[in-house]
């Protein structure tokens, strides 16, 4: 039985080989890149520590292996179950927070990011300002969405910024999940802001929907006694070559799942208000959403002319 020194100087007998994990880490070869070595060494250490802490049984270990196998087996070009598992465990939201954490020494901040999700498509068509992304029949409420993409530092509009939007239909499904009812690129579109940095188009007030529960993610949610619902949301990816891009989602304030999002993507600054719209024959609701991008050179220092105007939402 191995022994180890405790902080108070006494010897504690260990039930497990104290050198085993380091031996596994030491087996990593000399040609492994430094970052890869660091990440995998740390992963092995935490994985081994977890296994010892919970004293994982053989049956539990095999159940985990079979679970990972099932994730791969159900995934295909249209279904990324691995990413969904990451979402359910909060991992993608945590990675997003780390990747986009921008420390600022003022009250200013760019539009908050959140997870990309598995339903973005690079094939969304460019559409003219004022066009609709609605191609097919639906049972939702048509909304006019408009706003301005602004520079974090100057507060001025950013001309030519790309606003890439996608959302589920009123039945809670995205186009490639629902070929019987939706055509390709339904409820998807790319728009360029005008010379003032402004954009506008027509979309649907989004609908809450359930994550697919017929695979490992559903089993995991059941095991955790959690519901599979995502609050209604619209996806946005906003970019311009001179600015740091942002991938985000916006959520209606009246959605009942805001505080229990199954993938932990809701942030207070991303909650928006849909209001009644009069005088527009194409829509019954209005949504104003202003986005703020940080210049690529921005280092988090306050600008001499800065103020607290740069808030990404309009309420």
Could you characterize what this model shows?
This protein has 315 residues and is an alpha+beta fold. The chain has helices at 20-26, 34-54, 58-74, 81-88, 91-100, 216-223; strands spanning 2-5, 11-14, 142-151, 162-166, 188-192, 198-204, 209-210, 229-230, 234-239, 246-252, 271-272, 275-276, 285-288, 291-293. 23% of the residues lie in helices and 20% in strands. Helix 4 packs parallel to helix 6.
Write the layout of secondary structure elements.
Layout (H helix, E strand, L loop, with lengths): L1 E4 L5 E4 L5 H7 L7 H21 L3 H17 L6 H8 L2 H10 L41 E10 L10 E5 L21 E5 L5 E7 L4 E2 L5 H8 L5 E2 L3 E6 L6 E7 L18 E2 L2 E2 L8 E4 L2 E3 L22
Helix pairs in contact: 1-2, 4-6
The portion of residues forming beta strands comes to 15-25%
How many helices does DSSP assign? 6
Q: Multimeric state of these chains?
A: single chain
Helix and strand pattern: EEHHHHHEEEEEHEEEEEEE
Based on DSSP secondary structure assignment, what is the total number of beta strands?
Answer: 14
Q: How does the overall form come out from the CA principal axes?
A: globular
Distance between the termini: 64 Å
Question: Unreliable runs, pLDDT <50, ≥5 residues?
Answer: 303-315
Mean pLDDT across all amino acids: 90
* Biggest sheet layout: 5 strands, mixed
Rg over CA atoms = 24 Å
Secondary structure: helix percent = 10-25%
State the secondary-structure class: alpha+beta
